[in-house]
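Figure caption, in words: inputs first, then the predicted bound structure.
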Amino acid sequence: MENKRPTVYEECRQKGISRRDFLKFCTTMAALMGLESSGVAQVVNALETKPRLPVIWLHLQECTCCTESFIRAAHPIVATLLLDKISLDYTETLMAAAGEQAEAAKEETMKKYYGEYLLMIEGSIPTKDEGYCCVGGKSALQITEEAAKGAKAIIAWGNCACAGCVQAANPNPTGAKAIHKVIKGKPIINVQGCPPIADVMAGVIIYMLTFERMPQLDGLGRPKMFYSRRVHDSCYRRANFDAGLFVESFDDENAKHGYCLYKVGCKGPSTYNSCGIIKWNEGTSYPIQSGHPCLGCSEENFWDNSPFYKRMPDVHGFGIEATADQIGLALGTATAAGIAVHAVATNIRKKKLIDNEEPESTSNI
Ligand code: SF4
Ligand code: SF3
Ligand code: F3S
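Bound structure (FE3-S4 cluster present):
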């Protein structure tokens, strides 16, 4: 019989969070998830009536950037609320316990909440040698398999856990693999980005708590509510792209004017993420707004796909490379044709992703 645990709202109140701030938080979260106004009531109701989710957060081969992002969540109470309320029953970075005590806390959570806890994983699994990334005498693979057994669902944080990130870059010396390549038979959500946006991370957790099911995922396992649009589609420099106004080098006049960064390597046209909409650091900015091209950090193999500061090579399915030159020379038909090709190619690619969506992606967990 489950002990009577306080609801998220009760815990908020105990922490001194006002009803007003609590409601504001619920509204923000519902808006981020793209819910209708009735969705706000569902979020409020869930947080008022349900206890926090038990969580085990594993750190495998990674740099901790996802944790860093998460604890800097935009809404002032997100970090407090989630860090306390989802209860990081086990996370090597943030928990006070260490060594055997920490291992004992993990064992206890796995036993006590068997079948109920969310397993959050930051980092890739090295498969070349068991000695890489050992914790408490166990290999990363062993640790993950053990923790996955009793997990209700797995959230893979960041490009490391979703696709291997920098460790998997050629020549991938540790044989780094994404979680979904190794763990089978469990629902896995890939929350992509290097790191993912804090509010996106929070939104996924709140969604799971509210609806008790997996969010809809795209063909790469990413929640559609945050990854269905290209960075290019919400980019405030897009008008410059369309007008053929490009930065040619980082110190030129065009850069000062805030022209499009496509020619200096921007991967926005092939990258699905919410950066242009949600942004970072309390909605302050994101790479492109800081004058830096999108590196495509929410896509698989982004370290190897192409050099960061060179315009995209002939990425399969995209037809804009040649057009970028033509646009500058002759606006008009070339531009229109290029953009049309671009749009069609992108839609085809996106359609494929949607068609490939795994059936269990909307299932209850
Ligand atoms: Fe924005 Fe990059 Fe697209 Fe240019 S190429 S409009 S900078 S996303
Ligand atoms: Fe990884 Fe790219 Fe940082 Fe989140 S996601 S740990 S490197
Ligand atoms: Fe990553 Fe591009 Fe956003 S580099 S943070 S997906 S703008």
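Residues 62-63, 65-66, 122, 157-160, 165-166, 194-195 surround FE4-S3 cluster (ligand 2) (CB under 6 Å).
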